[in-house]
Amino acid sequence: MRLIIVSQHFYPDSFRVNDIAFALREQGHQVRVITGLPDYDTGMVPPAYRRFQKRREMIHGVEVIRLPTTRRRTGAFWRLINYASFAVEGWLYASFMGRVGTVDAVFTYQTSPVSQALPAIRLARRYRCPHLLYCLDLWPESMKVWGLGEGSLIYRVVSRISGRIYRATDLLAVCSRPFEQYLADTHGVDPARMHYLPQHCEALFDEVAGQYEENGVFDFVFAGNVGTAQDVPCILRAVALLGDTLNFHVHIVGAGSELEAVRALTAELGLEKKVTFHGRKPLEQMPGYYRLADAFLLTLAGDSFVGQTLPGKLQSYMSAGKPVVAAVDNAAAELLAEVGCGFCAPASDAKGLARCMAQAMVDIPQARAMGERGRTYYLKHFRREVFMEKLVELMVQGGHHHV
Is 96 helix (H, G, I), strand (E, B) or coil? Predict the structure, then answer.
């Protein structure tokens, strides 16, 4: 197939869409990616991509076209400007670029914001081909982490735009089952056009599976974004409750909008000897941290719909064959219970999380058996090969719907 992928973020930024695009190319498909300038991981555009350099390049056989987006900065205002720049530049590109051959399908990898799907909708109409949107963040629900409530004018406006975008797609794939109910109830999306497609995990951590570093300390690893939805303060309060009763250490590997606030809370609680912040690391360095882990930490704030869904990092944790210690609700909690691959407390329950952490440390054989169950489930349901087979099926199915 001849495919166009639309994603505001792409390599060298660390997103699973990279793996998807390269896997499609490996399968023999022709793949073109429409993306923005790479500034997600560092907050800065690398020098090689400034001043119209490398705006069109080939990466592992994938054609990558980069649009001139406004640099990502902190704060809701600048974030919205960054989002708008990709939507506008992408729409202009999709509207006025010369058509080249034919396209069999357009695929949107929809993280935040949903507006990045606007160029994809335009491309699909110009090429008269199906559009498959893979929904990984719900909009406008995701705006609540900025403190924007449902009663605010901007929230209501974005809600109307989001609904039109979701309804304009031929097929919607969702990474978490609760998304289907939200999209149907909030935006009137036809349930028949929605399909459950849980995120896959790169094979990066296969070499780590079942390996533990016997260093005399029980190491907990939290890996990923440090934002409001991830509720890292719950981890810190649990650590404070445990005190020095057990020999353990917590490693926070990642960065995000709440990193400085979380660092300040760590100092306030006097946890500097128990908690280490490693910052954001490139994907190729992550196996070292996964090998260090005796157990992984997973927390999500339960006060929004986003916090009730299935985060992609859970698949990564399970792929490493190690137990998960969590404070989560709904989809993530249900999966942990179904698989039996970890200890789980309710979302934002620091006392419950502390109890779960203690359980993992006290009964290490049980914890490691949980990790093995998680690995077995991952191999059956979350491997890249399983995901790619289902994704290509949906692209073909989208063609039938479109006709």
Answer: helix
Residue 381 CA to residue 211 CA, distance in Å, equals: 22
pLDDT at 401: 54
CB burial readout 117-150, b (16+ within 10 A) else e: bbbbbbbbeebebbbbbbbbbbbbbbbbbeebee
User: Please, where are the H alpha helices in 97-167?
Assistant: 117-127, 153-167
C-beta of residue 36 within 8 angstroms of C-beta of residue 55: no
Pairwise CA distance, residues 356 & 354, whole Å: 5
**CA-CA distance, 252 to 258, in Å (whole number)?**
12
The amino acid present at 200, given as its one-letter code, is H
Backbone angles phi, psi at 376, to 5 degrees: -60, -45
Name the residue type at position 391.
L
What's the pLDDT band for 98 if we cut at 50, 70, 90? Answer: low
Query: Who contacts 374 (Cβ-Cβ below 8 Å, separation ≥6)?
Result: 317, 318, 321, 322, 323, 324, 339, 341, 342
Task: Find all residues with CB under 8 Å of 80, minimum gap 6, and list them.
Answer: none
Contacts of 280 (CB under 8 A, 6+ apart): 41, 42, 253, 254, 255
Summarised one tens digit per residue, pLDDT across range 325-356 is 999 998 899 999 999 999 999 999 999 999 99
